[in-house]
Each structure stands twice: as C-alpha cells, then as structure tokens.
Amino acid sequence: MPVLLAIGTSKGLFLATSDDRGGWQVGGAQFPMNAIYSVALDTRRPTPRLLAGFASSHWGPTFATSDDLGRSWREPQQPPIAFPADTGASLQAVWQIAPAGADEPEVVYAGTQPSALFRSDDGGVHYELIRPLWDHPHRPEWGEGFGGQAIHTVLPHPDDPGRVLVAMSAGGVYRTEDAGVSWQASNTGIRAPFLPDELPEFGQCVHKVARDPVAPDRLYAQNHHGVYRSDDDGRNWTSIAAGLPSDFGFAMVAHPRRSGTIWNFPLEADISRFPPDRRCRVYRSGDAGSSWEALSQGLPAGDFYPAVLRDAMCADDADPAGVYFGTRSGTVYGSRDEGESWSLIAAHLPDVLCVRAAEV
After folding, report:
1. What per-residue string of b and e applies to 59-87 under the rule 16 or more CB within 10 Å gives b?
2. Whole domain around residue 198: which residue ranges?
3. Most buried among 21, 148, 177, 346, using CB within 10 Å?
C-alpha cells in the first residue's frame, strides 16, 4: 500500500507519498508560514483523516482536518479548541493529536500549550476541555520547559478507554483510570536533576513517552537526562539508559507491532544539543532497552550537528516497519527496513517539528 508521510515544519506542512518507501514525492508547503506543531493520521475510519494543529505568528493557533489526504482542508469558523472563559487561559499551540483506540472510533485527544487536555467525540472536529486535569492541585506548580509549558504526549490505553496517560514539560507524567475524572502523578523513579529534590512526586521535564504495542502497560520515556521503562503503566520507572551514548534527547518511538523494539535519537546534553561525537545515528533496542545498537547505514558520515525534536521521529504501520526522522536543519530521512538502512527523503525544508506516517 502507499505510505503517506506528513512533515510539520516551522513554516508549513509538507506531504510526501511513496508506493515502495524507496522513492518519494514531496509536495509543496501547505499552510505556509504557519508552524505545524502536531499532525495525526487517523486510520480507524474507512477514509483516513489528517488532523493538523498549527499556529500563525499573526493569526494565532488553529486546527484543521482533511478527509482526502490533504487535497482540501476543513477549518471551522469557530475555534475548535478553546479554553472556557473562566480559566483565564488562551490556546497557544496544539502540541499533540492522539486518536483513541478502535473501540472509540470518533474519540480524539489534543494536548495543548498551556498544559491541558481536550477531548473530541466527533472525530477531531470539536473539542472540550478535560476539566479535572486543568483543575488539578499540582497545576499551579507545573513548570515550563525550554519550548514552553505543554502536554506533548497523549497515550490512550488500547484495551481500556478509561485509561489515558499524558506527559508534559515540565510537570511529568499523569494518568487517569476513570476516563479523566481523576488524575494521579506517575513519576516514581524519574529524576529531575534540575530540582533540589531529584525524585519529586511531579515536576519532571519528560520529553516523550511511547507505549509498547503488544504489552500496552509497558512504556518507554525519554526524559530531560534519563531514559526509562515502566512495566506497570507508568506507576514506576527504571532506567534503560545503559548502552546509549547519552541519556539526553527528545524522541522515543515504539515499533507498531513488535514488543520491546524502540528507537531513540540521543543528544549530547541539555547544554550541548548536538548528536554525541557529532555523528548522525539512530539507536534501536530489540529487548525493551536492555541493550542498544547504533544504526547509521545511509546516514551522513561526516560531522552532523542538527537535533531531532520530540515528535520529529516516528514509525509507520507497514511490514517491515518504516522509521522516519526530521531535523532542525530541514532534512528528513527514512528507513523501510526498521532502521537497518536509511535514505534521504527531503532536504532544505524549514525546521522540522513533527513527522507522522501511515499506510493509506
């Protein structure tokens, strides 16, 4: 089947298509001069739906959907994601769009800046604020990461619609088991080296969390210094950083079907956001983080400086799985063999903020 790769950048959305994931056709910029912070490809419906959250420095943030693979878009007259007036808050950006499980085909979640979670029951067209998380007593103490205060990870549990996990910078991981009525901080074992207490209840700057596709209570997290695994749906975390050249980075991607296979793009440190040894390498684990291997065939061999952001790396749902990442220098690379080899898909794009791919 053809694969669609959506590339969100700081100056527009680019859609790339391929029949074999070897040669790619990359279209021009859609929503030019808008920062595309989030994209989702909802393949639960007979016709896949594209969802995009974008922001203009002039017009502000908004949200759009497409049911024809990006040939046309629907942008509601009224803001589809808006804070109630009594919150005193306004939407700055949509950082994450997450379709729920197959049992809820019309449910879509959106994580925003400022840190809040919204839910749609009509396929991502209109949203309501999940108020109990917004009203959580911890919220006044949530910090702000370098990129802003935002919920950037939303992981509905595939087997239980009442369970959802979110992560934010800088607040940490929170979970609900009752469809959002109550929320618990779930950061036991995750360090916050920038705080006086390195193991607080909350306040960690979690960068990304991915869910295992076969054992959904297993989670993988890239933290601000720290790489972790949880085997109990986020209640407790243990380090899996051994074998990586650095424990700093942003991206964490799980295989769409194979348990224990994950990909990561390490950076040297928070004060040195270059790849370790200035080499472009993706790291893969096939045993849930117990060991790691560097993958670089087809990637640049010389000095390499760009970073990969938290949502600028993804896997598709093909077999074998394709893996993709975009850089802050506007290059996009892809692998059609789960990272064994790589090829250049696009170059000279604006700063890549997010990528998403799926068979269509």
Report:
1. eebbbbbbbebbeeeeeeeebbbbbeeee
2. 90-347
3. 21
CATH number at residue 331: 2.130.10.10
Which residues lie closer than 8 Å to 302 by C-beta, 6 or more apart? none
Residue 30, domain member (yes or no): no
Instruction: Give the tens place of pLDDT for each residue, 253-281.
Output: 999 999 999 999 999 999 999 999 999 99
The half-sphere exposure of 344 on its side-chain side, counting CA atoms within 13 A, is 9
Full-model pTM: 0.97
For residue 18, being part of any structural domain is answered with no
> How many other CB atoms are there within 10 angstroms of residue 145's CB atom?
17
Q: What are the pLDDT digits (tens) for 177-187?
A: 999 999 999 99
CA dihedral sign of residues 104, 179, 259, 24? positive
356 located within any domain: no
How far apart CA 40 and CA 356 sit, in angstroms, is: 6
Does 12 reside within a domain?
no
- Our count of domains for the chain comes to 1
3-class DSSP assignment, residue 45:
coil
